[in-house]
Protein backbone atom coordinates (compact mmCIF):
# COMPACT_ATOMS: atom_id res chain seq x y z
CA UNK A 1 0.00 0.00 0.00
CA UNK A 2 1.52 3.36 -1.02
CA UNK A 3 2.37 5.79 1.77
CA UNK A 4 0.38 8.97 1.97
CA UNK A 5 2.25 12.26 1.75
CA UNK A 6 2.99 13.76 5.15
CA UNK A 7 0.65 16.80 4.74
CA UNK A 8 -2.29 14.49 3.98
CA UNK A 9 -1.46 12.33 6.99
CA UNK A 10 -1.43 15.45 9.16
CA UNK A 11 -4.76 16.63 7.74
CA UNK A 12 -6.37 13.24 8.37
CA UNK A 13 -5.02 13.19 11.93
CA UNK A 14 -6.38 16.68 12.56
CA UNK A 15 -9.78 15.72 11.12
CA UNK A 16 -9.96 12.64 13.35
CA UNK A 17 -8.98 14.72 16.38
CA UNK A 18 -11.66 17.31 15.59
CA UNK A 19 -14.28 14.58 15.21
CA UNK A 20 -13.28 13.11 18.56
CA UNK A 21 -13.43 16.52 20.22
CA UNK A 22 -16.91 17.09 18.75
CA UNK A 23 -18.07 13.71 20.03
CA UNK A 24 -16.71 14.45 23.50
CA UNK A 25 -18.37 17.88 23.48
CA UNK A 26 -21.68 16.37 22.41
CA UNK A 27 -21.43 13.77 25.19
CA UNK A 28 -20.61 16.41 27.82
CA UNK A 29 -23.39 18.71 26.65
CA UNK A 30 -25.90 15.86 26.61
CA UNK A 31 -24.94 14.91 30.16
CA UNK A 32 -25.67 18.51 31.13
CA UNK A 33 -29.07 18.43 29.51
CA UNK A 34 -28.17 20.19 26.27
CA UNK A 35 -29.26 18.80 22.90
CA UNK A 36 -27.53 20.26 19.85
CA UNK A 37 -30.01 20.36 17.03
CA UNK A 38 -30.22 21.35 13.41
CA UNK A 39 -29.59 24.71 11.86
CA UNK A 40 -32.58 27.00 11.45
CA UNK A 41 -33.30 30.05 9.35
CA UNK A 42 -32.38 32.21 12.34
CA UNK A 43 -29.24 30.46 13.56
CA UNK A 44 -28.30 27.24 15.38
CA UNK A 45 -30.95 25.83 17.68
CA UNK A 46 -30.15 24.45 21.13
CA UNK A 47 -32.54 22.63 23.44
CA UNK A 48 -31.72 22.82 27.16
CA UNK A 49 -33.11 20.79 30.04
CA UNK A 50 -33.18 22.73 33.29
CA UNK A 51 -35.42 23.53 36.28
CA UNK A 52 -37.58 26.47 37.27
CA UNK A 53 -37.22 28.32 40.58
CA UNK A 54 -39.27 25.63 42.31
CA UNK A 55 -37.15 22.79 40.97
CA UNK A 56 -39.72 21.66 38.40
CA UNK A 57 -38.07 20.27 35.23
CA UNK A 58 -38.36 22.53 32.18
CA UNK A 59 -37.05 22.52 28.62
CA UNK A 60 -35.87 25.64 26.79
CA UNK A 61 -35.38 26.41 23.11
CA UNK A 62 -32.58 28.79 22.16
CA UNK A 63 -32.30 29.93 18.54
CA UNK A 64 -29.48 32.15 17.34
CA UNK A 65 -28.46 32.93 20.92
CA UNK A 66 -31.94 34.02 22.01
CA UNK A 67 -34.38 31.98 24.10
CA UNK A 68 -37.63 31.46 22.20
CA UNK A 69 -39.69 29.00 24.19
CA UNK A 70 -39.98 27.18 27.50
CA UNK A 71 -41.99 24.07 28.33
CA UNK A 72 -42.56 21.83 31.30
CA UNK A 73 -41.49 18.25 30.63
CA UNK A 74 -43.55 16.30 33.15
CA UNK A 75 -46.41 14.53 31.44
CA UNK A 76 -49.02 16.20 33.65
CA UNK A 77 -47.59 19.67 32.99
CA UNK A 78 -46.35 19.56 29.38
CA UNK A 79 -49.21 21.71 28.04
CA UNK A 80 -49.13 24.21 30.91
CA UNK A 81 -47.58 27.66 30.50
CA UNK A 82 -44.20 28.53 31.99
CA UNK A 83 -43.61 32.11 30.78
CA UNK A 84 -45.30 34.95 32.63
CA UNK A 85 -46.37 36.70 29.43
CA UNK A 86 -47.97 33.50 28.13
CA UNK A 87 -49.94 33.27 31.36
CA UNK A 88 -51.14 36.83 30.79
CA UNK A 89 -52.12 35.81 27.25
CA UNK A 90 -54.15 32.96 28.74
CA UNK A 91 -55.92 35.26 31.20
CA UNK A 92 -56.96 37.57 28.36
CA UNK A 93 -58.25 34.61 26.33
CA UNK A 94 -60.36 33.64 29.34
CA UNK A 95 -61.61 37.22 29.78
CA UNK A 96 -62.60 37.28 26.10
CA UNK A 97 -64.79 34.21 26.69
CA UNK A 98 -62.79 31.90 24.43
CA UNK A 99 -61.52 29.43 27.00
CA UNK A 100 -64.70 27.62 28.05
CA UNK A 101 -67.32 29.66 26.24
CA UNK A 102 -68.23 30.30 22.64
CA UNK A 103 -66.68 28.72 19.60
CA UNK A 104 -63.94 30.72 17.97
CA UNK A 105 -60.95 30.78 15.66
CA UNK A 106 -57.42 31.71 16.65
CA UNK A 107 -54.38 32.63 14.57
CA UNK A 108 -50.96 32.35 16.22
CA UNK A 109 -48.09 33.89 14.27
CA UNK A 110 -44.82 32.29 15.37
CA UNK A 111 -44.54 28.71 16.55
CA UNK A 112 -41.25 28.39 18.42
CA UNK A 113 -41.70 25.54 20.86
CA UNK A 114 -45.47 25.86 20.33
CA UNK A 115 -46.03 26.62 24.02
CA UNK A 116 -49.05 28.88 23.61
CA UNK A 117 -50.69 26.90 20.77
CA UNK A 118 -50.41 23.77 22.93
CA UNK A 119 -52.23 25.57 25.72
CA UNK A 120 -54.92 26.84 23.35
CA UNK A 121 -55.63 23.36 22.01
CA UNK A 122 -55.54 21.61 25.39
CA UNK A 123 -57.43 24.28 27.37
CA UNK A 124 -59.88 25.79 24.87
CA UNK A 125 -61.91 22.88 23.48
CA UNK A 126 -64.20 25.08 21.36
CA UNK A 127 -61.38 27.00 19.72
CA UNK A 128 -59.87 26.17 16.32
CA UNK A 129 -56.22 27.25 16.10
CA UNK A 130 -54.02 27.99 13.08
CA UNK A 131 -50.29 28.39 13.73
CA UNK A 132 -48.05 30.03 11.13
CA UNK A 133 -44.34 29.25 11.50
CA UNK A 134 -41.99 30.21 8.68
CA UNK A 135 -39.22 27.71 9.50
CA UNK A 136 -39.99 23.98 9.15
CA UNK A 137 -36.90 23.19 11.24
CA UNK A 138 -38.51 24.93 14.23
CA UNK A 139 -41.70 22.90 13.86
CA UNK A 140 -39.61 19.73 13.63
CA UNK A 141 -37.89 20.61 16.91
CA UNK A 142 -41.29 21.27 18.51
CA UNK A 143 -42.47 17.85 17.40
CA UNK A 144 -39.37 16.03 18.65
CA UNK A 145 -38.68 17.85 21.92
CA UNK A 146 -41.67 20.00 22.87
CA UNK A 147 -44.54 17.47 22.71
CA UNK A 148 -46.29 18.82 19.61
CA UNK A 149 -46.74 15.26 18.34
CA UNK A 150 -48.18 14.26 21.72
CA UNK A 151 -50.65 17.14 21.52
CA UNK A 152 -51.87 16.13 18.06
CA UNK A 153 -52.24 12.50 19.09
CA UNK A 154 -53.83 13.03 22.50
CA UNK A 155 -56.27 15.71 21.35
CA UNK A 156 -57.02 14.12 17.97
CA UNK A 157 -56.32 17.40 16.19
CA UNK A 158 -55.65 15.71 12.85
CA UNK A 159 -59.09 14.17 12.96
CA UNK A 160 -61.12 17.13 14.21
CA UNK A 161 -59.10 19.88 12.52
CA UNK A 162 -58.74 22.00 15.66
CA UNK A 163 -55.04 22.57 14.95
CA UNK A 164 -53.83 23.71 11.55
CA UNK A 165 -50.07 24.12 11.01
CA UNK A 166 -48.94 26.42 8.21
CA UNK A 167 -45.35 26.90 7.01
CA UNK A 168 -45.33 30.48 5.77
CA UNK A 169 -44.34 34.05 6.57
CA UNK A 170 -46.72 35.18 9.29
CA UNK A 171 -47.30 38.70 8.06
CA UNK A 172 -47.76 37.53 4.48
CA UNK A 173 -50.25 34.88 5.60
CA UNK A 174 -52.26 37.39 7.60
CA UNK A 175 -52.42 40.09 4.95
CA UNK A 176 -53.23 37.56 2.23
CA UNK A 177 -55.93 35.84 4.23
CA UNK A 178 -59.57 36.59 3.53
CA UNK A 179 -60.51 35.13 6.91
CA UNK A 180 -61.37 36.75 10.22
CA UNK A 181 -60.29 35.46 13.60
CA UNK A 182 -61.60 35.84 17.13
CA UNK A 183 -58.02 35.89 18.40
CA UNK A 184 -54.78 36.90 16.70
CA UNK A 185 -51.57 36.29 18.62
CA UNK A 186 -48.25 37.79 17.56
CA UNK A 187 -45.51 35.73 19.20
CA UNK A 188 -43.02 35.96 16.34
CA UNK A 189 -40.73 38.73 17.47
CA UNK A 190 -37.10 38.38 16.39
CA UNK A 191 -35.02 40.10 19.04
CA UNK A 192 -36.74 43.44 19.57
CA UNK A 193 -38.21 43.76 16.07
CA UNK A 194 -41.99 43.70 15.78
CA UNK A 195 -43.84 41.61 13.26
CA UNK A 196 -43.96 43.27 9.84
CA UNK A 197 -45.26 46.83 9.87
CA UNK A 198 -46.94 46.48 13.27
CA UNK A 199 -45.47 49.74 14.48
CA UNK A 200 -47.31 51.60 11.69
CA UNK A 201 -50.98 52.53 11.69
CA UNK A 202 -51.46 50.57 8.47
CA UNK A 203 -50.05 47.44 10.11
CA UNK A 204 -52.35 47.75 13.11
CA UNK A 205 -55.33 48.30 10.80
CA UNK A 206 -54.43 45.12 8.90
CA UNK A 207 -54.61 43.20 12.18
CA UNK A 208 -57.88 44.90 13.12
CA UNK A 209 -59.44 44.14 9.74
CA UNK A 210 -58.71 40.41 10.16
CA UNK A 211 -60.43 40.23 13.53
CA UNK A 212 -64.03 39.15 13.91
CA UNK A 213 -66.41 41.44 15.75
CA UNK A 214 -65.22 41.68 19.34
CA UNK A 215 -61.96 39.92 18.41
CA UNK A 216 -58.78 40.37 20.43
CA UNK A 217 -55.19 40.98 19.36
CA UNK A 218 -52.33 39.90 21.64
CA UNK A 219 -48.66 40.70 21.06
CA UNK A 220 -45.44 40.14 22.93
CA UNK A 221 -43.53 43.44 22.85
CA UNK A 222 -39.96 42.88 24.00
CA UNK A 223 -38.88 46.21 25.45
CA UNK A 224 -38.13 48.13 28.62
CA UNK A 225 -40.92 50.36 29.89
CA UNK A 226 -38.70 53.39 30.37
CA UNK A 227 -35.41 54.77 29.13
CA UNK A 228 -33.32 53.69 26.17
CA UNK A 229 -34.76 51.09 23.80
CA UNK A 230 -38.47 51.85 24.20
CA UNK A 231 -39.06 52.87 20.56
CA UNK A 232 -40.68 49.55 19.61
CA UNK A 233 -43.07 49.71 22.56
CA UNK A 234 -44.02 53.36 21.97
CA UNK A 235 -44.56 52.92 18.24
CA UNK A 236 -46.55 49.69 18.68
CA UNK A 237 -48.83 51.27 21.29
CA UNK A 238 -49.37 54.39 19.17
CA UNK A 239 -50.22 52.27 16.12
CA UNK A 240 -52.77 50.20 18.03
CA UNK A 241 -54.29 53.26 19.71
CA UNK A 242 -54.93 54.72 16.25
CA UNK A 243 -56.60 51.51 14.99
CA UNK A 244 -58.47 50.09 18.00
CA UNK A 245 -61.03 51.39 20.46
CA UNK A 246 -59.35 49.80 23.46
CA UNK A 247 -55.65 49.15 24.10
CA UNK A 248 -54.01 47.67 27.20
CA UNK A 249 -50.42 47.06 28.23
CA UNK A 250 -49.61 44.42 30.86
CA UNK A 251 -45.93 44.73 31.77
CA UNK A 252 -43.88 41.71 32.73
CA UNK A 253 -41.85 43.51 35.41
CA UNK A 254 -43.38 46.88 36.32
CA UNK A 255 -41.11 47.06 39.35
CA UNK A 256 -38.06 47.19 37.03
CA UNK A 257 -39.14 49.57 34.24
CA UNK A 258 -35.67 49.96 32.71
CA UNK A 259 -35.14 46.23 32.22
CA UNK A 260 -36.18 44.61 28.95
CA UNK A 261 -39.24 42.42 29.45
CA UNK A 262 -41.91 40.48 27.58
CA UNK A 263 -44.77 42.95 27.78
CA UNK A 264 -48.28 41.99 26.71
CA UNK A 265 -50.05 44.37 24.34
CA UNK A 266 -53.80 43.82 24.10
CA UNK A 267 -55.94 45.56 21.48
CA UNK A 268 -59.64 45.18 20.68
CA UNK A 269 -62.69 47.14 19.63
CA UNK A 270 -64.48 45.49 22.54
CA UNK A 271 -64.03 46.70 26.11
CA UNK A 272 -62.42 43.89 28.06
CA UNK A 273 -62.64 43.29 31.79
CA UNK A 274 -58.95 44.10 32.30
CA UNK A 275 -57.94 46.22 35.27
CA UNK A 276 -58.11 49.93 34.49
CA UNK A 277 -54.47 50.47 35.46
CA UNK A 278 -53.42 48.53 32.36
CA UNK A 279 -55.53 50.60 29.95
CA UNK A 280 -53.59 52.98 27.68
CA UNK A 281 -56.68 53.94 25.67
Quick overview:
Pfam families: Spermine_synth (PF01564). The longest helix has 26 residues.
Tell me about this structure.
It is a single chain. This protein has helices at 6-31, 84-95, 115-123, 136-145, 148-154, 157-160, 170-176, 201-209, 231-243, and strands at residues 34-40, 43-51, 57-63, 66-72, 104-109, 127-132, 163-166, 181-186, 211-223, 246-250, 261-268. The protein is globular. The N and C termini lie far apart (82 Å). A seven-stranded mixed sheet has the order 7-6-5-8-9-11-10, with helices on both faces. A four-stranded antiparallel sheet has the order 1-2-3-4. It contains nine helices and eleven strands. Helix content is 35%, strand content 28%. The chain has 281 residues and is of the alpha/beta class. The protein folds into two domains: 6-72, no CATH class; 84-278, 3-Layer(aba) Sandwich (Rossmann fold). Helix 8 crosses helix 9. A hairpin with a 5-residue loop joins strand 2 and strand 3 (57-63).
Topology:
Layout: H1 6-31, E1 34-40, E2 43-51, E3 57-63, E4 66-72, H2 84-95, E5 104-109, H3 115-123, E6 127-132, H4 136-145, H5 148-154, H6 157-160, E7 163-166, H7 170-176, E8 181-186, H8 201-209, E9 211-223, H9 231-243, E10 246-250, E11 261-268
Parallel strand pairs: 5-6, 5-8, 6-7, 8-9
Antiparallel strand pairs: 1-2, 2-3, 3-4, 9-11, 10-11
Helix pairs in contact: 8-9
Amino acid sequence: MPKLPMPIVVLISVAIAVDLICLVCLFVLRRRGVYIKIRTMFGPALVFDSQDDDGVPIRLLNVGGKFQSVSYVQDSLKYKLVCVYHRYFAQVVDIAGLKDGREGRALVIGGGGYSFPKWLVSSCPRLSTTVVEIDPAITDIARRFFFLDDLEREHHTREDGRLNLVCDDGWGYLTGSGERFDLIVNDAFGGKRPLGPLKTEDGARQVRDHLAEGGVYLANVISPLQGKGTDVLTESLDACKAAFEHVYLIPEAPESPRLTGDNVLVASNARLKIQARYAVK
